[in-house]
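Our collaborator T.R. sent over the components below with a one-line note: 'Predict the complex.' Nothing else. No constraints on interfaces, no templates requested, no preferences about which chain binds where. So this is a plain run: every listed entity goes in together, and whatever single assembly comes back becomes the starting point for the next discussion.
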Amino acid sequence: MHVIRDYSDEEIITALKNEKETDGAIGFIYKNYYKSLENYILNNSGSKDDAADLIQETLVAFIDIVRENKFRGESSVKSFLYSIIRNLWLSEMRKRNNAANRNRIFEKGRDAKEQALVQELITKEYHKSILNLFERLGEKCKQLLMLVYYEDLSMKEIAAKMPEYENEQVLRNKKYKCMKSLEQMIHENDRLRIQFKNALRHAG
Amino acid sequence: MQDNFTDDSIIEQLIKYLDDELSPKERASTELLLQNDHTVKEHYDNLISARNAIKLKGIEQKIKALHQHYYPLANEAGDFKKKTAKIIKTGFAGTKKMIASVAAIFILIISGFVVYLYTTTSSESVYAENFISYKLPVLRGENNADELDSLFNAGNFSAVIKLIGTKQQLTQKDYFLQGLSSLQTANANGAIISLLALQKMNDSSSEKSFADESDYYLVLAYIKSGNISEAENMLVKITSNPKHMYYAKAKEISKTALTILKWKQ
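Returned assembly:
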């Protein structure tokens, strides 16, 4: 049985900024907001699977925005989630309707607030496309970079998790090498950057 | 111009700058480079995007795992706005509701107690609760004790009433013993008549006998006969005089019980 406590909007934001407290806040969102978000998709020609995917994307985008301190709290959490999913779904629908276009098409936001959100969502799409390049790195590189940049561990902590590397300096050197590889791939993929800039221009 | 892009050391310097691993001097020179070389700036932007993409991947993995865990919850009731409004609304109202509940329970208990009192309180019960038997003093050395006294002290109240009935003229003591014997033989009205006669005799005599006793036993006789108002009047007479022999006893008679008896009438 899940026991989820209630959260105010402020408490949700605080919890999402802290990796250890994120789970409870997400549970609360699932319990209280999932249905209405799902209904939006279902009422707009989407399926339950579409809703599941889009809601997860929505939450990823929301957490990212919160952790970058870009959520200003001008609207409620529920409204903001609704805005995100609406924009994601609309852009997904445009993509499905335009066979020639492999990417989502984001339209300009209705007002300044939504415009800022659209810009964020476009940036997230760009980051997602970079992840395709990330997947081309070796497993050790991926593991190391995740420990450094997502889990935010110190080299000492990472050395304990990756004992195959002799010491912290060796790990540090490995990190530089992995990041250089990834940056090189991004640099060489002009197309991605151009698409990103075009998307920003189109929606902006 | 030298191609900085193939200089791995520049990229490594940028990574160190991104991860805050440079000394203040190194930071300053990197910042200068970033300001002046837009190509270096582009590489740096790529590194920022790479870092943000990695963070995004971590969040995606987390949400994917949490989706499996929390999806069943999504089917539970829930427009949180309603629930929130309810919670926020009862933040203060919750205290009021609690106080109201406690008050309701309290009233229920009191009501229950009152009902209990009402059903169990009767003239007989109040009389029995407050009755104290009276014993006449027997003086030492007297061989031929008064027959009436002996019968009374022996609890032969019917014989006392019969014997007093044969007398032509009754004394104050006779009226008193007659009154108490009537009480003991469940003749409350007879007791009232005798005790009132005693009080009338006391009023017209310089020597008062059994005055305080008659007051108290009249209260009991009135209660037993259901004449609660008269009982209350007599009680007021006793309790307004702290020197009355039965002052303490009279105080013990429950006003609530008398009130209930009046309701019942």
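Summary for T.R.: Chain A has a mean pLDDT of 91.
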